[in-house]
Amino acid sequence: LENAGVHIDSVGYFNIFEFSTELGYICMGIFFGLVLGKPLGITLFSFLAVKFGIAECPAGATWKMLFAVACLGGIGFTMSIFVDNLAFDSAVHMDLINKGKISILLSSATAAVVGSLLIIIFNKKQTK
Fold first, then answer.
1. pLDDT at position 117
2. Residues 25-69: pLDDT tens digits?
């Protein structure tokens, strides 16, 4: 957390699913954007690329496994933290920046766990 520049002043920073008047649902949007949005986008555009003949699905690959691997796309937090730093004035919105970073890191951890579990589950079904 220190390397990401996150300063935790309160345990309340970890409550990313709450509505606040100054933040709204920004933290929840970050979470669902990384955990659901990225895998859905990766899967949808991969599907469209295959259907339109732009790309080929590798031999032996299934759409379930592609979705499981796409879930790992939510792990990429470096650019998200960079954008979080650029989006808000650090002198005025330091709480927002810190909550955003914590949301990004929690989302990345969730995406890693979900993606890994799905790969394990789908791989077991495929090898049987």
1. 96
2. 888 888 999 999 999 999 999 999 999 999 998 888 899 999 999
Is the separation of the CB atoms in 118 and 26 below 8 Å?
Answer: no
Q: What is the DSSP letter of 55?
A: S
Helix (H) / strand (E) element for 72: namely none
Residue 40: alpha-carbon gap to chain centroid? 11
Alpha-carbon dihedral 35, 39, 40, 44, rounded to 10 degrees: 170
Contact predicate 66/41, CB 8 Å: no
**SS3 breakdown of the chain: % helix, strand, coil, rounded to 5?**
70, 0, 30
pTM, 2 dp: 0.83
Return the closest-CA partner of residue 100 out of 82, 76, 73, 75.
82
